[in-house]
Amino acid sequence: MFDLIPFGRNERNLFNYLDNVERSFWDGSISNMAQFRCDVQDKGDSYLLEAELPGFEREDIGIDLDGTTLVITARHSSESGEKDKDGNYLRRERKFGSFSRSFDVSGVDTEHISAAYKNGVLELTLPEELEEISSTRIREAVDANRDISRLVDPAVQDFIYRRGLYLREPQDKPMLRTEDLEFSLCREVRELAPLLGQLTPPPEGLARAVADSGDQAVLLHRSGSSEPLGAVTFRCLDSQMLYARLKSPQLTGLVRQSTGGRALLISGVLVPRGEQQEEFGQLLLTEVLTLALSREYAYGLYCPLEGAASAFARQLILRQGFVPVAGEKDALAADMRRPLVLNRNVDTAIKQPLASRPAVAAAVSAARIRLQEALTGLYPGNLVLSLSAGVIYHRLLQRITARNGVPAEPLVPRQLGPDICVPYGKILRGVTVPNTVTKTLRTDKVYEPDLSAYSIEAYPGYSPLPDQVRTIRAFDRPVILVDDMLHDGKRIRRLAPLLEQTHTRVDQVLVGYLTGMGRDLMEQLGYPVDSIYYLPNLRRWFVESTLYPFIGGDTVRRTGLLPGGLQPSVNRILPYASPELPDVDSRAVWQLSLCCLENARDILLALEAEYRSLYARNLTLARLGEAVILPLCPDKGPCMTYDLTRAASTYLDGDIEQLRRMR
């Protein structure tokens, strides 16, 4: 709406007027006629201009528009004179008057001006011209923490600030791409030769020991390259093979008493020293362990071959939950019947470009090592299976595109397959699958405030689940449902009736890891299912990001939103809530809670430092959504709130201090 000087709005001089003086001719008998008055009223979305023009006929009034200048003109003429008896003029006079006023209407929608003239008053309705406000202008103002009420309605401004909208985001969703790491099964010992030459110190006799043992090896290498980056030698032993390979009555008896005789033997972890030694070693071990679990081998042994023993390998194996075997030098063992599963996904919860910054990646890597060590204390001797979300993502990409009949690399011009990819959990958020229509079902686990129960609902701020499912159905494409895991299936149980009601065809359910219970559920629902990993059973599972305050968690139901778009959440660790670990020693639970708090703090400190380096400003709670995909904050009751000008890491320092009081 444009501003008018008569009403004291002088920020912008949008209403200028020019007075035109009265003109008269002959004897100037109308020269004293006053110029017509104008009143202007602010009607909110328009202005009402009233001009007093008594004595004028409708046809005497003119309204002209020249660009952004509106001109109102009133013309008056009269004629008088004396005639003789024959009707000839003895004297004849003509008088003319013209009056006008001009107005600057640069803030007016000039195409919709309306006019009416009645009882000597001209009324002009001047509607406001709605200014085109770009999202860029709003984002720049929000980024600078400026008032945006002059750009949008104050109610909209409050909505934007409370929900943390218009924060710094990438222009487009990142495209999920294939990983350049691949695994292969070593068929001949000579394939290990290039790798053995890189080990420090060079192992003597290891190649012959591998050949004599008959063990297999899984190799890690880059796509398109045959040069190995690392390897794990192993063998899956059936009951009749135990003593022949182990050559130890004690180890053979341990396996038979524990699981009936089927065991995985790991005989070497061979990864050259370097920055990625830990990561490569973990990826290789996970590959071998999941292979054995899918074949239902229920016990694990680590007995290094001659030349394969190393401090690095031993520490890595210990972080998988293995424990020393009494009386057996170098031997370690773990019960694999019901593993603890850790989904390492915190890097997928951090936005780019921060997630790929070396300091952030180093903080995440160090935190993972500490978390694995803390998890081994919950059930000593029980396997801790650490799954990489990155590997799962990129193998899912291969499966999704293959199912959709499209390449795994983006095509130009874009060509779409017939199916629609529908992630329905916390996986693949913020990314798209190449050459595939991708639409996420925004579901969330929502706890009651006392944590007595939870339900699967739409993520706060999104449409109800029935509406989201109807949107998926409107695409009229076969659906590929995607999630990171399927065990008890609470999410898909909630969605199945909605999919059936809308007659949405589910072509396949594709998950990162599938348990025996999850497979049974899919048979009940009649959905075809496929997975990257198959685990017959598990004891408990942990999602890495969900353990870390401010980075992840589960939603807590509250009537109002916290400022800055932060969502109240709970992390099932102390001091926020009692962990769901009733059969675990309290000291191990406390140690796990401390580890999670310290890990979250260290990762946030790295994020805050890198954010300052990139943007020359502090990463406060108000801007947490610029670094974390789903910014959350620990719920501490309806009477507690957060100062948005502080960094999240400072709050974790206080929570760590509170936890130490509970020791």
Question: What does this 3D model show about the protein?
Answer:
This protein has 663 residues and is an alpha/beta fold. 28% of the residues lie in helices and 27% in strands. The strands form five sheets. Strands 9, 10, 11, 12, 13, 14, 15, 16 and 24 form a nine-stranded mixed beta sheet that branches. A five-stranded parallel beta sheet has the order 18-17-21-22-23. It has a five-stranded mixed beta sheet with strand order 20-19-25-26-27, covered by helices on one side. Strand 4 and strand 5 form a beta hairpin.
Q: What is the molecular shape? A: elongated
Structural class comes to: alpha/beta
* Structure summary, number of beta strands: 27
Backbone CA Rg: 38 Å
* Strand composition percent: 25-35%
Termini, distance in Å? 63 Å
Instruction: Please give the oligomerization state of what you see.
Output: single chain
User: In percent, how helical is the residue content?
Assistant: 25-40%
How would you characterize the largest beta sheet?
9 strands, mixed
Number of helices: 15
Average pLDDT over all residues: 87
Detail the poorly predicted runs.
1-34
Features:
alpha/beta; 663 residues; 5-stranded parallel β-sheet; 9-stranded mixed β-sheet; 27 strands
Write the layout of secondary structure elements.
Layout: E1 17-19, E2 38-42, E3 46-52, E4 61-66, E5 69-83, E6 89-104, E7 114-118, E8 121-127, H1 135-143, H2 154-163, E9 181-186, H3 193-196, H4 206-213, E10 216-222, E11 228-237, H5 242-246, H6 249-259, E12 263-270, H7 277-294, E13 299-302, H8 311-318, E14 323-324, E15 332-344, H9 358-376, E16 382-388, H10 389-404, E17 420-423, E18 437-438, E19 443-447, E20 454-458, H11 465-474, E21 479-486, H12 490-501, E22 506-515, H13 516-525, E23 529-535, E24 540-543, E25 554-556, E26 567-570, H14 586-615, E27 632-634, H15 648-660
Parallel strand pairs: 12-13, 15-16, 15-24, 17-18, 17-21, 19-25, 21-22, 22-23, 26-27
Antiparallel strand pairs: 1-6, 2-3, 3-8, 4-5, 5-6, 7-8, 9-10, 10-11, 11-12, 13-15, 14-15, 19-20, 25-26
